[in-house]
Amino acid sequence: MTKEMMIDLIVSRESGTPQQLQQMRKTLERTNVDYVEKLLDESNLRQISVEAARQVARSPRIMEIQADRERMAEEHLLSMRYGHIFRTPIIVDGKAVVAIDNAANRGVIAGWPHEDRGEYISAAFFKKVLAEQPQLARSLSWQSVDVLDPKKRKLAEANQEAEDRETFNKFAREIGFSGVEANFQLAKSVLGNFDRYTLAQAVQSNALQLAPASQEELAQYAQDAYEARVDFLAHRATPLELRAAAHQESERLAQGQQQAPELDQIQKMRQAEQNAGTAYPPLPDEFRDGNGPEEALNAAFVKRCSTETLQKLIRIYGSAQIDELLRVRVPGSIWEF
């Protein structure tokens, strides 16, 4: 984010007359970029605190979730500050180098600032400390400044973006979330770079709330999985894997033969509910799990929803309809995963 973009964001969040805001902008334009970054960090944290208060006012259960979000946001802001440090060239032993971005270097640098003196981690502070105490350079690991070459950096960032996109797409398909760009960018903004474990932890803690996949996307996921399976078995499967696929097909056929008894059992459950004088409304297309957004009501939703939500579904719509949603399957093929 450029200095001008950071100033735009800071000014947009302030209140005052147009003249006052214009004066603020001029003042910020005369300051260095590190100071503007610090103001933006403080502004971001204020925004998070305001949103936390608003959420807590709606539901005390949000407190724990919001605490996780604030912690992740603070970690993200700190990561941005470190990012500037690891792009700052330093002369060490007569060579232009940059510090390597790793946990060991971060741990060393984190012990340098004295907050009681108003010091905080930034590129300017990093350069100042090393200029005053050059011996500290020996406590860090370094790499050639060539890594800052725009072309090489752009290629590395593009590769990282593609890798993150592939990781996110696989995760979305596995869990049943939408792979739309908005979901991907939300994950990037909350987590930065990530792996499958980080995504799963963020979703589980509600720090990351992704839109569920639409029926069209779920159908496309199934079609893509089918095509991938066909390609694998046709071109790369070993004889052992082909025999396993044949065994899977046999099990599928056996399950298909049991379909009729399952349907009969569901009908009996429904008849028993009717005989008891209980008339349940038909299942809706969407339902809400706790305080979350409405999602498509399907087998995937029932499997991952909370116990309270499952009990509520059964209480409102009857166990027969929920059982039918979970147990009735359209027979597939040996290509299913």
Write structural notes for this entry.
It is a single chain. Strands 1-2-3 form a three-stranded antiparallel sheet, with no helix packed on it. Strands 4-5 form a two-stranded antiparallel ribbon. Mean pLDDT is 78; it is low at 328-337. 65% of the residues lie in helices and 5% in strands. With 337 residues, the chain is mainly alpha-helical. Helix 1 packs antiparallel against helix 2, helix 1 (3-12) runs parallel beside helix 3 (33-58) and helix 12 (259-275) packs antiparallel against helix 15. The chain folds into four domains: 1-81, no CATH class; 86-148, no CATH class; 160-204; 215-327, no CATH class.
Biggest β-sheet strands, sense, barrel: 3 strands, antiparallel
Structural class: mainly alpha
- The residue fraction in helices comes out at 55-70%
Q: Residue ranges: pLDDT <50 for 5 or more in a row?
A: 328-337
- Average pLDDT, all residues: 78
The coarse overall form would be extended
Taken in chain order, the helices and strands follow as HHHHEEHHEHHHHHHEEHHH
